[in-house]
Design brief:
Blueprint (H helix, E strand, L loop, with lengths): L2 H24 L15 E4 L2 E4 L4 E7 L2 E6 L5 H10 L7 E3 L2 E5 L5 H39 L4 H34 L2
């Protein structure tokens, strides 16, 4: 058994959990406009539901405004409907094949609910990281039981896996703290 290769695989999986978390929190709306706000929007297009970015470009022409440029003029109504049905609290203004979406100010209640959502995303990421740790520990226990590695090597590897897990979770916590500050900033 190549313990170094297993540790690299565990590290890769933990970094994948961090990347997924970053993607999740990037889609949360803060005080300023970000094209990621529209990531969860699905549009009924050509008989199936597709992400908004497959039928239009999203831009940020002003700090509190999003612009959506639809490629096919027949899809404008579907894009408008998709944005309204995404429950993001946004009301697009149709202007030919373009949609202008003013971002309303976030009230205190909405900010607190966004913080709760970010905490949920963080907990999901922590759970994913703990699952990776559990898989690594199980592999080490099996290797020790099968006689592939010694008990000392197993303990040393277990300590490394735990250290990696702790570092990754602390990175998630620091990213969460940054996002919280960004959301609560007036």
């Amino acid at each position: 058994m190549s313990a170094g290769a297993d540790l690299k695989e565990l590290k890769r999986r933990m970094e994948g959990a961090i990347a997924a978390f970053k993607s999740d929190i990037a889609s949360l709306r803060t005080g300023r406009a970000s094209p990621n706000v529209l990531d969860p929007v699905m549009v009924e297009a050509y008989g199936s539901r597709v992400p908004l970015n497959q039928v239009a470009n999203v831009t940020v022409p002003e700090p509190r405004m999003l612009g959506v440029s639809v490629w096919d003029k027949q899809m404008v109504g579907a894009v408008d409907r998709g944005i309204r049905e995404a429950n993001l609290g946004l009301n697009p203004i149709v202007d030919g094949t373009n949609l202008r979406i003013p971002l309303p100010d976030l009230n205190e209640e909405r900010r607190k609910s966004l913080v709760k959502v970010s905490h949920t995303y963080a907990e999901n990421a922590r759970v994913a990281i703990r699952n990776v740790r559990r898989d690594g520990m199980d592999t080490l226990k099996k290797a020790e039981k099968d006689g592939d590695i010694s008990q000392d090597d197993s303990r040393r590897e277990s300590d490394l896996v735990q250290k990696m897990t702790d570092e990754t979770i602390s990175e998630i916590d620091s990213l969460l703290l940054e996002k919280e500050k960004e959301i609560m900033q007036v």
